Amino acid sequence: MKPFVLLATRAEDVPADGEYELFLRGAGLDEGDLVRVRLEAEPMPPIDLDAISGIIVGGGPFNASDPPEQKSAVQHRVEAEFATLLDEVVARDFPFLGACYGVGTLGAHQGAVIDRAYSEKIGVVPVSLTDAGASDPLFAGMPATFNAFVGHKEAARELPASATLLASSPACPVQAFRVGANVYATQFHPELDLPGIEVRIHSYGGYGYFADHELEDTLASVRRAPVSEPQRMLRTFVERYAR
């Protein structure tokens, strides 16, 4: 099998390594089948789409909607690299699954309106499939509404005509969308399980997702309802596109 590539941007080793392990486990891959590139540490290497099965993008610290003068040199580089990569990915309709930061990368590339109008605190939310989502192969076998972990400062407020809305939540109208037939982005985190999000909560105190005194409430918010369905998407993605 040709490998999949995980493009990651987390600078902190504990949540970065945890994210990689979650994608491996959720997708049913071993390390040889999922090549990780840490973009916060090094420029994106040349990616030969003919040599891989697909691209997965993890979450991260960058917000596409931040004013340019507030973005670091690393963020500007990463955004430029994604723009170039997505030119080819979208043109070829190449398998791509962006989780959380996928909205900031693919959404920005396609001209979505991305801002802080529909941010969501860290927690569990019900995600409901649209008619298009219910018939999409990536969501095969999933219920019409399922619980998922979220936590994001920005979101897509409006999608361009090139995108098909696949899922929404009560507080965030764009939880998943597709461009073409094979290019996907989700706002929720399909890779996360409860231990994984608890690690992230402890790792990202002081990053603006919650106040210091809200730590215990934030942990309680991710424990209030079971989350079991989203990881199925990862395995479906791999089964559908492995070659």
From TrEMBL:
PROSITE patterns: GATASE_TYPE_1. One of its GO terms (cellular component) is cytosol. InterPro entries: ChyE-like, Class_I_gatase-like, GATASE. Keywords: Glutamine amidotransferase. It comes from the Bacteria. Residues 49-192 form the Glutamine amidotransferase domain. This is Glutamine amidotransferase. It comes from Agromyces rhizosphaerae. The lineage of its organism: Bacteria, Bacillati, Actinomycetota, Actinomycetes, Micrococcales.
